Amino acid sequence: MVDLSFNNYVREMKANTGTPDDFSTYRHQKQQDAPSGDYVYRPDQDALRTLQRLKPLNLTISALVRFWKESWRGELLGHAVKVTPRQFSNLYQIGMECAEELHLVLPPMYVIQNPYLNAMTLGLEDDSIIIIHSATVDHLSREELKSVIGHECGHIANGHVLYHTVAQFLASGAAMLIAWLAQPLRMMLLDWIRKSEITADRAGLICAQDETIATRTLVKLALGSQNLYEQVNVDEYLKQLDELRGTIGKFAELTQTHPFLPKRVKALQLFAKSKYYQQRVLGMESTGGMSMTKLDEHVAKIIAI
Ligand SMILES: [Zn+2]
User: Fold this and answer.
1) Which residues lie at CB < 5 A from ion ligand 1?
2) Which residues is 133 bridged to in the sheet?
3) How far apart are CA 63 and CA 70, in angstroms?
4) pLDDT tens across 80-98, in order?
5) 137 exposure class (CB count in 10 Å sphere: 0-12, 13-18, 19+)
6) Residues facing residue 82 across a β-bridge
């Protein structure tokens, strides 16, 4: 295992193998290069800017960059199959459509064998990969996959990838030795990640262009089953949110990387009613929808813990 303890880190820096500022410069350049979409959930970007100013996280990034390049990336891809125009061409096509919709260059996509419905984007801002679990491809329709891949592209388009990977890195065995990263910082990171999911869900809907498909996909991912989904009443499911409020169990969300799913579904349904989505995405004439500022105020209340 790579020694990622703080003392070792400082030793290496002193030995002139690089300085934390090298990585800060790297990160700032990449973040500034990555323009955020105007559909972004504003508190996501505000929290991201705060994280970027935290020195201890910069130190973690330097360890991460090294670990990613030296071993993690290769380890991840050891059992993965690349998506290309000649292999899983349907997924490739979906990826290209999402990338075009969100104005980004599609990073390499891979399928890995995994029974859980999920997808993720990991890496550095200029060296990221989208990983799709095989079960996701088996259980979801083309339109639903577009929502999932669009969500991942939303993370890329809005500069989320580096800090999402930091969180994965901290949760992995490889980073066990980074004991010096204080718990409040980890909680700040998780708080931002939950906000970033709201932005990415919006990107998923922009790509799928169908509210029913996008919300259905979120519920299917939670259930992990096409068969079970057919028996779920989404309105009934959303009532669980009211049951959750007022219970001590709601605080479990503080340690999660995603807001509880009913909150995500409600936040996405609101976005679908916004002026932005109706005019810019669907091309409707109506101007009756909610402004992005009003929308974000509502969403903040929905996802508050
Ligand atoms: Zn996500």
Assistant:
1) 197, 200
2) 112
3) 11
4) 999 999 999 999 999 999 9
5) middle
6) 110
